[in-house]
Structures are given as C-alpha cells and as structure tokens.
Amino acid sequence: MIRHDEGPFDVVVAGGGISGTMAAIAAGREGARVLLVERYAALGGMATLGLVQPITTWGINGTYVIGGTARRILEGMIEREPDSATELTHYGPTCDAEYLKRELEQAALDHGVSLLYHSWISGVDRDGDRITALRAVSKSGELELRGDLFVDATGDGDLAVAAGVPIEEGSQGITLMFLLSGVERERCPEYQEMRELYRQAGPLSYRLLCIFWAQRPDSVYVNMTEVEDLDGCDVGDLTYATIECRRQAWGILDAFRGSIPGFENAYIAQTAPALGVRESRHVQGRYILTSEDVVTGKSFEDTIARAACPVDIHGSQNAGLGEYSGVKRSYGVPWRCLVTEQMSNLIVTGRCISADHVAHSSVRRMAPGSALGEAAGLGAAMSLAHGDVRTLPVEPLQEKLRSYGAILDPE
User: Fold this and answer.
1) pLDDT of 200 over the 70 cut
2) I need a labelling partner for 60 at 20 to 30 A (CA). Which of 163, 248, 328, 374 fits?
C-alpha cells in the first residue's frame, strides 16, 4: 500500500462509504493509483458504521437490482463466511458490520487502493476548472492530497462545495440505528402482530415498528429513532440529533420489553457509531434526476446505473410516517448526474449526486450507491487519458460496466 504522502495520485476518492469504496476499487482495478480518504476507521459507511441493515436492493417482480462488483463481494463474503450475512434475496442481505468492514477493506487493498483513515476533508485547491488537491485535517495536522481526478463520495458534496459548485439543500429525518440483543426469537409473534402490540404500547407508537433480524440469532437491527428539520451539515444539529436519538433508543427498548413477547430480556448491544443522515446537499450536475424520471422508469442514452428503490421521504407528514411509495419499474441514472458544468476533473457519487428531493429519496440507498460508485471509479480511470469528465464518451464506459456485471438495461 502506498502512503498518502507518496502522491500525487491518479484518482483521489473522498469518502469510504459503499459508493466511495466501490469507486476506489473500480479505479484501482483499472490500474490507476488510487487514494481513498475516510473520516472514520472503517469502510462501508452506513452499512457498517451506521448499522443500516439490510443492504436494501428492492427489485421489481424479483429483479435483482444490485450487480457488478458489489454483488460479487457480498456473494464471496457469504460463501466464505456463512455467518457473515443472511440469505442474499432481492430485498438484500443483512450483513454483520464487522465481517463487512473486513471484506471491503481487504477488497480495496487487493485492488491496490491506498487507504487513509481518521482524516476529515477541509477544502480543495483549484486551478481554473480543475481541482489540484484536497485538503484534510488529521492528528498529523493539515494534509495536502494531490491527484489528477477526484471523486466526491462524501455524501454531503464536501469537495463540490469547496470547489464552488452550486448545490441545493434538502432535509429528511435523521436516524441513529441500534442493535438489540437478548431477543428470544422463537417466542416472538409474527411481524404484523408485533407492530400492533408496539402501536398500543404508548407515546412512542407514532413510529412504525421497523426491525430487521440480524444474522445473530438473538439480535435485531432497529430503524426507529428519528429527528426532523435539522441540517445534516451543521455540527450543532448533528450533536443534538445524536443525543436525542440515543434517548429515543432507550425509550424504544422499554416499549419493546413491556409489550412484545420475546423482548422481555432484550438489551441495547450497540448504538451506531455514525448517524444516518438521509439528505443534506444535492450537487447540481449537468442533469438533475427528477421525480418523474423515477416514477416513470425512465432510461437515458448515458445510463450508468439502475435503481428500483421506493420513494421514501422521512418527515412529519402522514402522522409522522412520511411519504412512501414503491416504483413500478426500474429507472436509469445518467452519467450527467455525476459530473458538473464547472469542473473538468470532479465526479460525484452516492447520495449527493444531482437529483431533486423526491428522486433523491429513492436513489440515496446503498444498492444504487454501489452501482454509482463503480461507474464513478471506472469513469475516473478512463478520464485519466481522456482529460475531461464532462465529455467522456459514455458507450465505452457502459461496455466496461456490463463486462463487470452491472445492470444498465430495463427489466
């Protein structure tokens, strides 16, 4: 592994969530010298540090809307370590966070990616329409990380904002996932009965019961805490959200213990190290994915990924349940959503791509994020010779993505 101070690199990826990790692996596989910068101490983002399980892959009539390298990594992990995840269905596997941390980290290293943990992006250096370096703060002081191509996988569009690219801001409910253990699964009623018992339990019942059985036989992931109307890029709001969601988690535990058979001896085994911020900034790209694109299943000539996740807007409407509706067919995401008018060497991936509020609520999930990341990484590697991400020929990129098993065509 090359150290971060042995640059400049061909490709610098900011953010080691699912999308950023797939971007780094894809670029490294093509022979690029890649640096992946992550603020925490593990890869995987929401899937590991956020405890967001399962890795949702909603399909249409059984269509598997996760492909490419991400699918092969998950299948390989499950084949080697059967205890690492539940069965891989079209709803996606529930993965053990520790197994997945190791798997993603090793996959990145196997593809020649250099890793830099414990580093927070603080800005960029820019020369005209090109970023020349990103700046990060760390225990070692301020770092200057130079490269030719940059991938913004921060989730909040931190590189794009620092480079002066226009953004739109949005907000949805923020959640802190947690893991309950000590559950006697064989005594638990069916899911709908559990929901009704929880609804009758008291003041927390306005939140639907939302749990996912973990691969550990006595444990469930709980997706039920939430605070609204906060800025996911404001440190004060993030602090408040963390404290309030943790308080809610203990209240939910009390309600479970007192109302649902099998949960009498449950306990909080872990609250997530990272908050689940669903929405913050949308980088304004050369095309804005719209709600109409999502609900009509639109395809594009420059499609580089497909998704079929529901429209899922967390907010106070509908008695606190938000807006939720499935889509009838998968839709494409064009390359133009990943590149901007202003910058010739910046590619955006993950939940901060160019999309409106409604479209974002579907494409923000991890299955689309993995596909967008692989496209971003391959596009970055191909742009090293081409020179400008805005004019990169997309057909060769699509052919390369298909060769790795990406799903680009409508079902």
Assistant:
1) yes
2) 374
Give pLDDT tens digits for 125-178: 999 999 999 999 999 999 999 999 999 999 999 999 999 999 999 999 999 999
Residues 281/167, Cβ–Cβ less than 8 Å: yes
Q: Cα-flanking dihedrals φ and ψ of residue 194, to 5°? A: -60, -40
Tokens of 157: 């569009």
List, by residue range, all CATH 3.50.50.60 domains of the chain: 4-170+280-403
CA distance 308 to 65: 7
Residue 54, preceding peptide bond in cis (omega within 30° of 0): yes
- pLDDT at position 60, please? 59
How far is Cα 222 from Cα 203, in angstroms, rounded to an integer?
Answer: 17
Distance separating alpha carbons of residues 131 and 159, to the nearest angstrom: 9
What is the sign, positive or negative, of the torsion defined by CA atoms of 71, 76, 79, 80?
Answer: negative
Mean predicted confidence (pLDDT) in 94-111 = 94
Q: Which of 242, 264, 246, 247 is nearest to 255 (CA)?
A: 264
Interatomic CA distance for residues 32 and 381, integer angstroms? 6
| pTM of this structure | 0.95
Of the CA atoms within 13 Å of residue 166, those in its CB half-sphere come to 10
Question: Which residues in the chain are classed under CATH 3.30.70?
Answer: 174-277
Q: What are phi and psi of 217, to 5 degrees?
A: -65, -20
What fold characterizes domain 174-277? Alpha-Beta Plaits (3.30.70)
Closest to 37 (Cα-Cα) out of 150, 165, 130: 150
pLDDT (0 to 100) of residue 327: 85
Contacts of 140 (CB under 8 A, 6+ apart): none
Identify the residue with better confidence: 92 or 208: 208
pLDDT at residue 94 tops 70 = yes
Q: How confident is the model at residue 199 (pLDDT cuts 50, 70, 90)?
A: confident
Residue 63 pLDDT class (50, 70, 90 cuts): low
Q: Which of 368, 403, 392 is nearest to 92 (CA)?
A: 368
Q: What is the mean pLDDT of residues 2-31?
A: 93
